[in-house]
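User: I'm putting together a teaching handout on how multi-component assemblies are represented. Below are the sequence lines for each component of a complex, exactly as they appear in our records. Could you produce the 3D structure of the whole assembly as structure tokens, so the students can see both representations side by side? Please keep the chain order the same as the input.
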Amino acid sequence: MATLDPNILVLGQKNAKHLLRRASFTYHKSLIDQYALLTPNQALNLLLTTNTPPVNLPYDPLPTTAPDGFWTESTALATSFANQGRKGGIVAGWWWYNAINSPNLKYKLSHFLSTCFTVEIDASSSATDFYDYIRLLLHYSYGNYKTLAKKMTLNNNMLYYLNNTANIRTAPNENYAREFFELFTIGKGPQIGLGNYTTYTEADVVQAARVLTGFRRLNTRTIIDPDTSLPKGYNVFSLHHTSSKTFSSAFNNTVIAAATNDAGMDTELNAFVNMIFNQQATAKNICRKMYIYFVKGTITPEVETDIITPLALEFYNNGYEIAPIIRRLLESKHFYDLDDTDSTNETIGGMIKSPLNQLSEICTFLKATISNPTTNAYDYYYKFWSLFAYNSFLTGSNMMLFNPENVAGHPAYYQAPGFDKNWISATNLISRYRLGESLLDGINRISGNATIITKINISSVVRDGNIISVASDPYILTSELCNALFAQNPDTNRVNYFMSTFLLQGMANFYWTNAWSDYIVTGVNSVVESRLKLLVTNILRAPESQMF
Amino acid sequence: MMKRRNFIQLTASASALSLLPTEVFALFKSAGMTSCPNVNAKKIVLIQLSGANDGLNTVVPLNQYDAYAALRPNIKLNNIGLSNAVINLDDTLPLANQIGLHPSSTGFKSLYDRGLMRVIQGVGYASQDKSHFKSTDLWLTGGDGTSANNNIDSGWIGRFLENYYSNFLTANFPLGIQLGSSDNSLGFHGEVEHGMSININGQDPAGFYSILNGLGGAPPTTIPNSEYGDLIRFIMASDAETNLYAQSISTAFSRGTNSTNVTYPSTSLSNQLKTVAKFISGGLQSKVYLVKIGGFDTHDIQVASNTTTHLGTHANLLTQVSEAINAFITDLNNQNLGDDVIAVPFSEFGRKAGENGNLGTDHGEIAPMFVFGKSINPGVSGTNINLSEAVSANNFQVQTVQHDYRRVFSTILQDWFGTSNQTLDLTFYNTTTNQGYANSKVSNMIKAEFAVPPNCYSNSLLSNNDFGNRNDIVVYPNPTVETVNINSINNSINVVYVYSLDGKLVATYRNPMTSDSYSIDVQNLATGIYTLKVETNNGSFTKKIIVRR
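Assistant: Of course. Below is the structure of the complete assembly, with chains in the same order as your input.
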């Protein structure tokens, strides 16, 4: 019987690792050791905090002769800047750098919200509008989902991406209305009749499109929402549909009175959004998405009854506040496999890592030397992020960050029955398996062999990074690396396999101990570096490394 | 109905029968014993137009031009006689069925005039679902909007492959290949089988194998019996099948050619089809190809302006599609491969007959389909759609389904591939009406000389030799009942491991002698598919075997 009842036991190493991997993009040994001593409740207290992001603004270091710099702060029209695609990628890089330096839930939640309210960088109105969209998600990460749904409707980027800025009363454009129901809020139920998806109908889409007429994107970004301090679109009553809107029995035949002026359009929009969020189905749909993102890619009937339903009820009753719900989920016995003794339904190790998780975990645990965007913008945004992480690794792994193929998002988050299994395919094997060695060499081994500036100096990290207790002991070294990088601790045979094949390469244990102590004394790493690289590369290629 | 999917660990297997079926048929034929056509080489190329192609501006019903213009005052294409007008498909068609093709479709017109294209009017399914994602899933799974046919979790292509080509499941080539998008298409998911297709989007087909070979590393020998363990097996299986298939793909690609008399434009779809042609030319025996092009969701700026409706997003897309397909079919015909290939574009639904306010169209319902190839009977199936259906009360939609899409595919699968009623019913079946599609095929779609007569229908094809990989081991007989002989040609066999479909080690056999041939007894194994891993002094080789009783 699955349960949301809280786990009140101290986490310990295994659960601490699990929680940190699922809740943040910061997977450090020091954090693991710290959290291992806490209960889930204490851990969530830490995770639900906000830090000052290390990098305040994205920066374009190109063109090198006269960089566009802090272009998002410019008063010039956002679209007047060249290379919008590159700039969009830079915004993603800015977000990621802050994510891997923020040991809290905010960034995971903002990414989760981007899978609910999806846009594509390449189909955005401008990189600056995309930057505003990301800031909107960050603003509401610990906030209210319903409020976010309202604010997102007026977000300049979303107004453009799903065409609502062109939705006018003389000929409504249904694109945003449809996706608002289907993807952002209540979701589809089974099709029970002609154009009837249980939770809403085709006729509702038509009515919704009318409610949404007349909201326009403002390309100058000069209208600021006082609630968020972010740019927003504006209302044009003359383009708005002025009859009342009648919805189907799926919404109890609700009639929404039409606005009579610009301000009234907000009242009408509120009534429309409230109508949708008054349905329990909306809370359930969002909770299911949260479950698939944070917990597991399958929702069994037991989980639907014992986890989703009560969670959705809480979410509904608390008015759609996100923080208490994610806390409930990540504190639950279910999340730590403590609600039953059935090992065939595990949460720990039960999901395949997304490429984003893979990149973040490796870089943070193994202390990759990532350039600081503030002091070394060219190295970070261009050489590392744009050329390698974003356009080579993430793209090659089929996860273009914030840039999925279409508005449904990355298949791993919605495509039944595989969900997270969709991260594994013939097309992305090369990227996935060559990430580790690329970072260890500081060279793009996925394609092109260019230097990526960032590197995991594995010898120094093992010696100085406090991640291994006794590095001179090859078995301890290997097993601690495996335990850290695998989802579950491997058995002795498996550790021996890695140790003998890659670290010792058939030699006796003392060979390593001697080599390591030579390194400590002389500081020359040539002997140990190659063997450590081989070991870590192969640990990262093992199937056990692909889950979390 | 949820069925647990079994993950295959894949190997190649050499058939003990060294005669190719073509040779077998030739023998029979010369003895006058049969005139059943050889269908082994036949392939279907599915072209997914993602986003919902606007069928009404692709195929304009000329007999209702005024109604068309009234529904689409700003995005209507010009009538015959004006500049940049629609293309008159065929003036021998009855007046009531005269068609104007989008002016960008010169490639289609050329194919039609050469007798290589048929138009199927009014294609869709009952109870239209206007969600891109759901409707795409329905098209790929053989479903429709009625509740009984709405949540099928396997793809029709997958069911077709796992049944009709059940004897090919152990081959070293993938039965299906995907290009154009990195998702693992639902279309290829079998009800039972996994790993019948491979997606090689973005890979360099020539170098794929050499890069990929062995990249995944050795898997653990003990896998926990848990969810985590299942995922480990899933990854191992994916790695193994990719490795296995990659070799046949790379080899075929390097051997294949494109006709020098054909110029493929440098567009995404064209490049995908050019690659497919090269695979086919190089002898790859994959049966179903799925390529993809997106961008059809033209809610706005479908046309460049209301005075230049022949230009813009939709025009560019149709140019890309018609030029790519024209190049592809011509290439195949030039290489004498055209008999064996049918190409079928499809899209998740059409678009509204009435335009919206943004020079675009919103989601619609029925749309025309096209089928291409030498085997296709050129012409038009069905009549022009009836635009008087599109009124305010129904949101300006044309809804009459003249041809359920499953009838179109079923016709190809049976009349051309020669699938039996039984296998056809496993591929497409309407659970709402409780009927298959064998009795509702689209008539006259396949040319008589290429059609398979009913007495030649079969549930599944005989297998033939795998695409040659002569350098490893031979395993026979396969399928087997109780003994498997393994010969590793000059390498001594040390150990043979036998794994079940889900990755469990079920048997280990150690060769007591130093020999390059070794026989193992499998009479205690249950019937099914197994993977043999044969360790020799010169490396390991994997093969798949079938145990049958």
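A couple of points students might notice: The first strand of chain A starts at residue 215 and ends at 216. The longest helix of chain A spans residues 377-396.
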